[in-house]
Amino acid sequence: MSAEIERAASLLRAGALVAFPTETVYGLGADARNPAAVAKIFAAKGRPADHPLIVHLPDTTHLTHWASDIPEAAHVLAKAFWPGPLTLILKRQADVPDAVTGGQDTVGLRVPNHPLALELLHSFGAGIAAPSANRFGRISPTTAEHVREDLGEAVALILNGGPCSVGIESTIVDLSGPRTTILRPGMLSASEIGRVLGRVPDIAGDPLAAPTPRASGTLAAHYAPRTPLVLMPDDSLPITLRNAIVQKERVAVLATFPAPFNHPLIEWHVAPADPAGFAHDLYAKLRELDALGCDRIIVQKPVGQPWQAIHDRLKRAAAGSGSR
Ligand code: TXA
Ligand code: MG
User: Fold this and answer.
1) Ligand 2 midpoint to CA 260 (Å)
2) What is the average per-residue pLDDT within 28-46?
3) 99 burial level (CB within 10 Å; 0-12, 13-18, 19+)
4) What's the mean pLDDT in 274-281?
5) Ligand 1 pocket residue status of 27, Cβ below 6 Å
6) Distance (Å, rounded) from C-alpha 157 to C-alpha 295?
7) Counting Cβ atoms within 10 Å, is residue 185 exposed (0-12), middle (13-18) or buried (19+)?
8) Which atom of ligand 1 is nearest to the CA of 26?
9) What is the crossing angle of helices 275-291 and 144-151, to 10°?
10) In sequence order, what are the residues at sequence separation of 6 or more whose Cβ sits closer than 8 angstroms to the Cβ of residue 53?
């Protein structure tokens, strides 16, 4: 166990915040049993206090400390996908602090798949409550530098594990009721989950229509850059860019294919053409394009089932974008 991990664990014991890498995005961690420490997360993020947090666990044996009435499906999914990019929503144990659950009768749990996160969790030996380590509503961090830019002084320590391998947040599966529902899509797909469970999970309805979302990552406007962002089918891109040039607009583009033409007003960035590669780079790219200060960011609209979670994040980024 490195000295830095030990320091991080003792900071958590003392009620301080520690940011740490996971395979999905960086988390802003606090001792999940300490309501005063958890309150610091909400203050640092500027996040409404009724939004529940995910409790990160060292391994599956800790499930019963946090969840009650655990259905067989939870054990099946945990065995198949933990450690990994999957969060389970389960009925909570009575002693789980309201600060963590947002006062709901359920709790979100996950064992992350990152060596530093697992070392920290084992050294700490208990649950770490951690949302993504960004200011509320902004783009999730996938490097330690992103965390420093967003939260800086509010965090006692940032563990640097390099860029996150998955790049977008975990798939959230609600098993707290009679049905199995995906509340937030992730790179672990509904079909992989369905294959292991032997039944197809429900997908939560369009959050644009839901008045009180249970998951903040499902708010319509989320993961948002300051520059207005639009999604556009690949075949509409060239004509849109020609028009933008006529209007003297500066446009940043993220697409999986090279620029059809070059122009000083167009900043064209090529993204990986496979979903895993695209997700890996997505948040760092959005931050980079946002920092260019263009009039608009145009992202090629992703199409098809393997791109579902990426499309979900991009739609929310578009909905929340442009608030400078
Ligand atoms: O990949 C991830 O899940 C990352 C890393 C750090 O683990 N964490 C993350 O946390 O994305 P956050 O707080 O940004 O998003 C967690 C989502 C929120 O939308 C929250 O509302 C939802 O999980 N959530 C947590 N507990 C819940 C519960 N009991 N019921 C419904 N939704 C819950
Ligand atoms: Mg988040």
Assistant:
1) 35
2) 97
3) buried
4) 98
5) yes
6) 36
7) buried
8) 6
9) 40
10) 32, 38, 41, 100, 102, 108, 129, 130, 131
- pLDDT, position 209: 34
In the chain the domains, ranked by start, together with CATH numbers, are 3-203 (3.90.870.10), 229-320 (3.40.50.11030)
pLDDT (0 to 100) of residue 148: 96
Tell me the residue type at 38.
V
Residues with CB under 5 A from ligand 2 (ion): 132
C-alpha 34: how far from chain center: 23
Ligand 1 contacts CB of residue 54 (under 6 A): yes
Atom of ligand 1 lying closest to residue 54 CA = 25
Instruction: Write down the pTM of the prediction.
Output: 0.95
Which among 323, 288, 39 is positioned nearest to 146, based on CA atoms? 288
Mean per-residue pLDDT, 93-122: 97
